[in-house]
Design a protein that fits this description.
Layout lengths: L3 E4 L17 E4 L16 H11 L5 E5 L4 H10 L3 E3 L2 H4 L7 H23 L1
Parallel strand pairs: 1-2, 2-3, 3-4
């Protein structure tokens, strides 16, 4: 079993300090929970960086959910995220591709942007 904790955009990273050794995943939300298609809240990126530093070498995933697309996903990976959740960016049409092929193309674009950001950080 795995345990995780989610933080709303306004919550400080300090709320997880005392439970770091008990969680497998920390999810700082980059939108206010409630509905899909919201704009990415870039002000959360410094929190992601601080969380990555707090996590250190612990085996804790740092997941981002909210407004993730290739551009914002790359910024999140550069800040220290290692898991990206995308909804609207996956299920929108991709150029002239529809359906499953469009979804695959959108996922591939998010993965590629994350990989480029990770390579730059290394």
């Amino acid at each position: 079993n795995k345990a995780g904790v989610a933080l709303n955009p306004a919550q400080p990273q300090s709320v997880v300090q005392d439970i770091l050794d008990q969680v497998d995943l920390i999810l700082p939300m980059t939108v206010n929970p409630g509905f899909g298609g919201q704009a990415f809240i870039a002000d959360v990126l410094p929190k992601v960086q601080r969380l990555r530093a707090m996590i250190g070498d612990r085996p804790i995933h740092l997941e981002i959910d909210g407004g993730v697309n290739p551009e914002t996903g790359a910024r999140c990976v550069a800040a220290g995220a290692d898991v990206l959740v995308a909804g609207s960016a996956v299920f929108k049409p991709s150029g002239n591709l529809g359906g499953i092929e469009g979804y695959r193309a959108n996922i591939a674009a998010i993965r590629a942007a994350g990989a480029r950001a990770q390579a730059k950080a290394a």
